[in-house]
Prior knowledge:
Layout: E1 5-10, E2 18-22, E3 25-29, H1 36-43, H2 58-73, E4 77-79, E5 82-84, H3 88-102, E6 110-114, E7 117-121, H4 123-152, H5 159-163
Helix pairs in contact: 2-4, 3-4
Amino acid sequence: MTITVSNPRWEDPGETLVRVEIDGVDTLVPPTPSHPHFKAIVDADLAIAPYAAPVPSSADLIAYAADKRWRVETGGVVVNGAQLWTDRTTQVMLSRTVQLLDKGMLTAPINVKTPGGFLPLSQQDIEGIGAAVAQHVQAAFDAELLVLAGIETETITSFADIDAAAWPPND
């Protein structure tokens, strides 16, 4: 029985499977010399095309951009040499602390825990940190908006393009 093979190409970057048409049927074949379908590829002297990563859809890119923005938004920021959290709980706590200080329900200094340890902060310090965190968060959303515009105009077509966008730093 003769096996007709055509269009062999690596299915994955690790080259563990070959996708090939066998008698017109799309099939996955292990690259094992003793496997009859792989042997048919070799016997036909067919070159196996390199792996080509699938092109992400615009929906995939949009979802990736939203995740990237969230990771940047909540990934922290450095203010006056201190690494600070920017997760949503911290954003709320900063806002609430400023409100309570304004109403006289708390008095400074307020001991704030950071990734580097506790810092006693004045109301002015907390307001400055709150402003820096808010600006960082807004910059993350602004970057996502620009990325989405690039996806729409097809100037951003890959996950690498999204990663290379002008995201605010977390350090």
